[in-house]
Amino acid sequence: MSSDVNFFGKDIVSMRDFSRKDVEYIMDLAEEMLPYAKGEKRTKCLEGKILGNLFFEPSTRTRMSFESAAYRLGLHVMDVTQTSMTSITKGETLADTIRMVDTYCDAIVLRHPNEGAARLAANVADSPVINAGDGAGSHPTQTLLDLFTMKRSKGSIDDLNIVLLGDLKYGRTVHSLSHALTMFGAKLTFVAPESLQMPHDIIESLKSKGCNPYMTDDLNDVIQDADVLYVTRIQRERFPDPNEYKKVAGMYRVNNEALRESKKDLIVMHPLPRVDEIAPEVDSTEHAKYFEQAFNGIPIRMALLASVMGGEL
Ligand code: CP
Ligand 1 pocket: which of 57, 60, 293, 300 to mutate (most atoms <8 Å of CB)? Predict the structure, then answer.
């Protein structure tokens, strides 16, 4: 470990807590984790420790890749996948639930529908808490695997021209990601209908870091210059009014025709799940990186768990 980077015992709540050096440290460690993540090499560097994997909101990739990462490191996993099976249904608060889980395990992964839930958990738990997505707030482990995917695909993240498309208002992945990309001098373009554009406070925060994003609602305007097209799903479950969702549903569909004018080495990413915003015909092109991106959740989460729980390869 680099002498001035030390994650042992730390919470992973927001990308705002990360420096560029921290991000690079986790990405370098994830690179070392790759053969273990693929099962080509074996380690038991966290044997005897227990992970609490608490998911109070649906998830496929984050929950299962944390579980896979944990097993690849020799951890035991306690999994909660349904609130209805916990005493929260009897009125127990999240804070009390976390206080209990804290005594049963050595680190806690938490996904929760409420923004700020991970910060609350981190404040009451002694064990490290890792935010696996808090409402429309942030999703830092997704951001780290997104950055790792860009680095592995493009060689470097510095100065890339990155277009973020879709639901930039409710999509927590793009909130964390755009903040992190300012550390690498990336040029950002936000493509969304006006009602789903990036929230004003995030734009102001990006500007304060010297990043001046270009905003449009037309992908055709900007696709030619993009190095990375990061597509997001319209987050139906976060719309207070279903009629507002209907107005924007299906507005963007990335297909081979939409990519016709793009650079040959453009990569298309998506945190998944997708609905209809990327046509299946794109899957078999060289542009498609979203399934590889989902796999990259394993080495990145192995790197994070090993770092905060004190495991060495
Ligand atoms: N990308 C992501 O967070 O996917 P899940 O909701 O399936 O975990």
Answer: 60
